Amino acid sequence: MKFDEALNRLEEIVSDLEKVDVSVEDALVAYEEGIKLVKFCSKKLSEIEKKIELITKSSSGKLKATSITEKDLLKGES
């Protein structure tokens, strides 16, 4: 499963759980799936954080690699 697919499914689950007419049994199954998806997405973000590097120029004009953290990635979504 890809990250965006997991995130979309997680959004569907949240939407389903917000409905008033969801049975307790269905809500529990959806909640369990949601927890698995949150763990999956968190793991993927950690992997991405380790892989992504931003190439920047220092003041001397030399290129240098700078790590981007998950926090940096999430700032761009605000």
Overall description:
This protein is an alpha+beta fold and about 80 residues long. It has one domain. The chain is about 65% helix and about 15% strand. It has three helices and two strands; from the N terminus they run ααββα. It has a two-stranded antiparallel ribbon. A hairpin with a 5-residue loop joins strand 1 (about 55) and strand 2 (about 65). Helix 1 packs antiparallel against helix 2 (about 25-50). The longest helix is centred in the middle third of the chain and has 28 residues, at about 25-50. The chain is elongated, with a radius of gyration of 18 Å. The two termini are about 25 Å apart.
In a nutshell, what does this entry contain?
The protein is built from three helices and two strands. It is of the alpha+beta class and 78 residues long.
Query: What class would the helix/strand composition place it in?
Result: alpha+beta
Total strand count, please? 2
Number of domains: 1
- How much helix is in the residues? 55-70%
Query: What's the alpha carbon Rg, rounded to whole Å?
Result: 18 Å
Question: What is the strand arrangement across the widest sheet?
Answer: 1-2
Average pLDDT for all residues? 82
Distance, first to last CA: 25 Å
Low-confidence stretches: none
Outline? elongated
Detail the topology: elements first, then pairings:
Layout: H1 3-17, H2 24-51, E1 53-57, E2 63-67, H3 70-75
Antiparallel strand pairs: 1-2
